Amino acid sequence: MDEAALLAALPVLAFHAVLAFARLGAAVMVLPGLGQEDVPPAIRLGLGLGLVLLLLPGLTDRLPPPPDDAGEAVRLIVLEVVVGLWLGGLARVTVLAMAMAGQAIALLLGLAQALVPDPASGGMGTATGRLLALAATVLVLGSGLYVLPLQALAQSYDLLPAGEPFPAGTGAEAFAAAAAESLALALRLAAPFVVAAILVNVALGLLARIAPQVQVYFVAVPGQVLLGLALLAALMPALLGAFGEGARAAFLALPGMP
Question: Coiled-coil ranges per the record (predicted)?
Answer without folding.
Answer: none
